[in-house]
Amino acid sequence: MTTSPSTPSLPAPGVAPWTLFSRVVSGSEVEQPAAGEWENEAAPPDLSGTVLRACYELVRRLGCGGMGEVYEARFLASGQAVAVKILFGRYAAQEEFLVRFRRELQVLEAIRHPNVVRVRDFDRTSDGRPFMVMELIEGVDLARHVAQRGRLPIAEVIEIGRQLCDALACLHARGVIHRDITPRNVLVEGEGRDVKVKLIDLGVCKATAEWYAEARPYMTPPGRRLRTRAGMILGTPGYTAPEAIDHPPAPQHDVYSLGVVLFEAATGRRLPRVWAYAIPERVDASTLGLDRHVWRTLLKAIEPCPEARYASATAMAEALEDLQLVVGDSTENAAAEGDSRRGSGVPRSKVTARAAARPQDRWVKLVVALLVIHAIADLTHRLRVRDDAVMSNMTAGANPAVSSSTHGLSEIEGAAAECGASSSCASDT
Ligand SMILES: Nc1ncnc2c1ncn2[C@@H]1O[C@H](COP(=O)(O)OP(=O)(O)O)[C@@H](O)[C@H]1O
Ligand SMILES: [Mg+2]
What we know:
There is one protein chain. The chain is an alpha+beta fold. The protein contains nine helices and 13 strands. A hairpin with a 6-residue loop joins strand 9 and strand 10 (about 195-200). Helix 4 (about 155-175) runs antiparallel to helix 7.
């Protein structure tokens, strides 16, 4: 059984974690992702219509998060549509939040990645609230995307996962851990294999080297964000890796969160809160309506034990690409066992190119194997023919060519039968 190293609370005595898990995932108690679930604070007044720094006119509010509110805005000089994120007024005087807001800006400025939102400006409102101007991403966040469409086709889930792995690998390569990968922080445009995702909200990201144990984090009530004792946001319950609560930030924390996000997209269900205490090995993929290959790939991301997880976002990306080869263009999440349809989509990343090369490798291996088998069969046949010819000459003196070839064929068949019998014996033992 795999358990979390730090377990703030355990299931009630006598209730097997797995029983609880089965009940939660298969029964009516399934929690559905709901838009706005993580918005615990009262929304501040809507600033639509306000012009910031005589440059950006706020058009409409797109959303509120844990740290600030985001507006669609218009860059007055060119009319270009942009997104403006403004720190909540109540945090504008708190040094820790200012540091986080500025760090988000700095990381976004440093990262140039197609799946990470781009930032283009930074300033303060007339009442001193910092704001940053970003590219406007059309589309909706992943929570809403799933709420609108239900569980997503597996090919789409894999594509979303691959793009996010790519983005995370880029962040991790610079020593930055996102720490708040949730469906609300993933924006989605399009669907199916053409889906395009962008990672937003690096408000709680942390450079691993920066981590300090100034305050042991503690759990806030369910549905609220995790905060450090200093009141700083740490992540979102249900998505944060079990060990992240008292360990330095690590790439595997983001891998876990991404695994939970993909699990929800593939099943349309929330991962039960008892997950960290469940027995993942015993989960039956069919209970979740998932193909066993899909489940195995997802499970390795959401293993409660970090050592059992993918070691990196890159490793997870490779696993997703392998999975894509297995499920192909299937729109079913619970594809038939042994389904080996191959994807026909155009590979997009260099890792995809690696994966795309594999079918060719397999064909080469198959052809070589067939040639070897043919050569062995031919050699055996020739030896039998020769032996039979010798035997025929020694006994009846019949036409060696005819009789030897006939006997040789049947003996090869007999030998093959014996071979089959002995190999099945061998496999039985
Ligand atoms: N660049 C953007 N384009 C479009 N919508 C955005 C953009 N950035 C954020 N949003 C919307 O605003 C919401 C909150 O943004 P986020 O950066 O997550 O804020 P917080 O740090 O407060 O959680 C997001 O869930 C999303 O709906
Ligand atoms: Mg957010």
